[in-house]
Write a structure and sequence with these properties.
Number of strands: 8
Structural class: alpha/beta
Number of domains: 1
Radius of gyration: 20 Å
CATH superfamily: Aldolase class I
Number of helices: 14
Distance between the termini: 57 Å
Order of helices and strands: HEHEHHHEHEHEHEHHEHEHHH
CATH class: Alpha Beta
Strand order of the largest sheet: 1-2-3-4-5-6-7-8
């Protein structure tokens, strides 16, 4: 008898973990989870546990500054997670088994206000740096103007990309088209893999606040409808390319934000295809649910609900607002990580002086 997680995977979904805590990774891997992702919040939470102080002390003994230490720890922790999923990558010949590595979020920090060309060059340089020698590492690049401008060169250079912070069909198309242009500059398409992270629950948080006139039937469905439409566009675009590896949508931000929502609302909605990247609590809820999952990813709500969403939700306004919020949410955790590193340095120095 299959477990709920096995049922979800059997429906056609690849399940990844939004986290790289070694304990969570071991547990989730045993359930059938085949990939993971990281970000500055995840790295900071791991550092706070104190379980990696010896690694930090080792880097400190080399005289690294706070910024270099933050990246050394990110590289180390992501790399250890990659080792767990490398057999999946090898078995699937590069179609699964990845761990996502987020580039420096301070590139987009509004307080720094870097020129577009500078930001783009930083994405290109850092993407090449952190992907070198890492076969199952995906480089996260945000769907900003500078991020998209870097995609073609990064893809042409052989970097495997996860385009994140995507909210709208327009953003998806812009990123996809530049990645495809870059892919066609490669000598071979055998190892070409790209994914596009569509944020789901943040869309429903937005409509609750800014589109309160939606009916109860439509409210809370916009993120699902939006992501499913982008998923369908992605399926159609790549169908005639006959590539060895799948170019996939990641359904991200799949943890529910409303207490009244069923915890597996988004998990169930996207069952059947591509990738769900779920927080640890969501994957635990799947495993504990006793549920059996069937393909739902190609099923939209009733036609009148979809028509209401199309009539009342301005996708351009939604994208603009969520990107404004998203860039801030992108930069602030990196600043917090650097502050934590500074505090950890002082604390370890104090202990060593006793």
């Amino acid at each position: 008898m299959s477990t709920p997680m096995q049922s979800l995977i059997a429906s056609g979904t690849k399940v990844w973990l939004d986290g790289i805590d070694p304990n969570d990774i071991t547990r989730n891997r045993s359930w059938g989870v085949t990939g993971a992702t990281s970000n500055p919040i995840i790295i900071a939470d791991l550092i706070k546990t104190g379980r990696f102080d010896k690694d930090i002390e080792r880097f400190l003994s080399k005289g690294v500054n706070d910024d270099d230490l933050a990246w050394a720890m990110t590289h180390l922790l992501v790399g250890r997670t990659q080792e767990v999923f490398l057999p999946v990558w090898e078995t699937t010949r590069g179609d699964d088994g990845y761990v996502s590595f987020e580039l420096d979020a301070l590139i987009e920090d509004p307080e720094r206000n870097l020129p577009l060309e500078t930001r783009t060059k930083l994405y290109i340089d850092l993407g090449k740096k952190w992907s070198a020698g890492q076969p199952n590492r995906m480089i996260k690049v945000p769907n900003t103007a500078a991020g998209v401008a870097a995609l073609q060169e990064l893809t042409a250079a052989g970097v495997t990309l996860n385009v994140t912070l995507t909210f709208s069909p327009r953003q998806y198309i812009a990123a996809r088209d530049d990645i495809w242009r870059g892919a066609q500059k490669r000598r071979s398409l055998d190892g070409f893999k790209s994914v596009y992270s569509i944020f789901v629950s943040r869309v429903d948080v937005y409509t609750e606040k800014y589109v309160p006139q939606l009916s109860p039937r439509a409210q809370g469905q916009v993120g699902i409808v939006n992501a499913k439409r982008i998923w369908k566009m992605n399926q159609q675009f790549w169908a005639d390319k006959h590539l060895p590896l799948k170019q996939e949508i990641i359904f991200a931000s799949t943890g529910t934000k409303k207490a009244s929502d069923p915890p597996l609302k988004y998990v169930e909605a996207f069952a059947g295809s591509d990738i769900e990247t779920n927080p640890p609590a969501t994957n635990q809820a799947i495993q504990d649910s006793g549920r059996s999952f069937t393909r739902q990813v190609d099923q939209l709500p009733l036609a009148d609900v979809v028509a209401e969403i199309d009539r009342l939700v301005d996708i351009d306004k939604m994208e603009a607002k969520l990107m404004e919020e998203g860039v801030k949410k992108f930069a602030d955790p990196q600043k917090a990580l650097l502050q934590l590193i500074a505090e950890k340095r002082a604390a370890l120095k104090s202990v060593g002086a006793r």
